[in-house]
Write a structure and sequence with these properties.
4 copies of one chain form a homotetramer. Chain A contains 3 helices and 7 strands. A 5-stranded antiparallel sheet of chain A has the order 1-3-4-5-2. In chain A, strands 6-7 form a two-stranded antiparallel ribbon. Chain A is globular, with a radius of gyration of 16 Å. Chains in contact: A-B, A-C, A-D, B-C, B-D, C-D. Chains A and B meet through helix 1 and strand 2 of A and helix 1 and strand 2 of B.
């Protein structure tokens, strides 16, 4: 699989009164990491991707995270992301967070739907078949 | 088990360009829901609880969420929370989100550690035995 | 002017390592307070308002806040909001935050544009004349 | 004055249903930009700075921002930050946001207090005289 790695600096505002990252912030980082994975694999931004494939996004349907080591403001974490499975209209991504280079701090996984506006009700969204190009690029093939 | 239910109004700023809740915001709501569960079961605030038991918080070690139905700004969701397991120095909580009264929109679970400052290194935190009073109150006994 | 007051509980996740509210969170509360002001004055939600008037929102063009007293998690603050001026396609709102009932903790003001999709470029937004009904309701007349 | 510039990628989760940045997110970016300004001027992180000078942070007492041009997810904005005034126990910083290289998108200013724990009440914070070293480094002298 195609792997993308990016570094994120933990900011003061990411942390809670215990001085460590407020965990919902990690999910915001993962959401950006999935967008970065797609951008790196496809060669263009998520903004461009939504327009090219006429989708509204890839909303999450399931996610899980296990937190081994906390981080605090000033830390620079590395987030390694890759697709782990493809279904008809959904896909799965795993994220691994490393602290101080080699320490595995967090393991997370997520399942997302490739979603377009519902054809008859613009208020709703509807899963679409995952384009073969997307699967090919994320597979690294 | 003792169950706490609270209503949360989805705000404009909780939502993303697809018009639905940006999922990391749900985890912020769940974090507040666990605090509200404890406050309701104990009869005093999380702030007071941290002082009484000399802990720094109950950081998350594992969480999982399955999203069945999206919500958008203006929706009022109900979040039902209860403890689901107790271990020596950790506990588990489940949250169920209902939309439009009865529709089960999200199911989430989390495991947290009852954590104090490390006795010799104030930079670190350390799990503590869960006080029997906490277990009793959350058990509804 | 029509005044709306709402209470907000400061959550653990709203606070930073100093144990007080991370100030960007106040702006999220103010954004929700302006939406609540409109909803209270109009009698329907912001979601409904956007549809009725065919606008995309009321993005901010200027804001200022002075912070007199910090708040911490567990505090319940009162936010009092009211329109303070109306222009052709923009309006101004002031928010006053009270802590412990009577202590004035924050004073904030904001100017927003009543904005629709640009008629020829859907990527852009464009100010629209503020509907008289909106002005009348927010004026409390 | 010493000037620091950093680039920030606007993420999907920074944006609201109108597809543009939810403005409280800009204040989170400014908070991180002030920390980055100090780190660049001093040569060490905010985390290190708090320990060296025994302070709890530099909480905001006043801020103002004028938004000229909106940004949307996928945009890379440049944030230029510099100190603009020094008082006994407070200082002022201005941030200028540029979009697409040269377009001035936002102008913001803020006043912060150099704050330590209150000597007799650890629940409170108290302004401290700004260290000459801080003033000198931020002045670029």
């Amino acid at each position: 699989m195609f792997v993308n790695r990016r570094n994120v600096t933990i900011e003061w505002g990411d942390c809670d009164p215990a001085g460590i990252v407020f965990y919902p912030r990690y999910f915001a980082m993962f959401d950006a990491s999935t967008a970065a994975l797609f951008a790196a694999a496809l060669g263009y931004s998520k903004y461009e991707m939504l327009k090219r494939f006429d989708i509204v996004g890839f909303p999450i349907v399931d996610t899980r995270a296990t937190f081994h080591v906390p981080s605090r403001f000033g830390d620079v974490i590395g987030i390694e992301s890759q697709a782990s499975a493809f279904n008809r209209s959904s896909f799965e991504v795993v994220h691994r967070v490393f602290r101080s280079g080699e320490v595995l701090a967090i393991e997370a996984s997520e399942k997302r739907v490739w979603a377009a506006r519902h054809p008859t009700d613009p208020e709703r969204i509807k899963g679409q078949t995952l384009p073969p190009e997307i699967v090919a690029r994320l597979s690294g093939s």
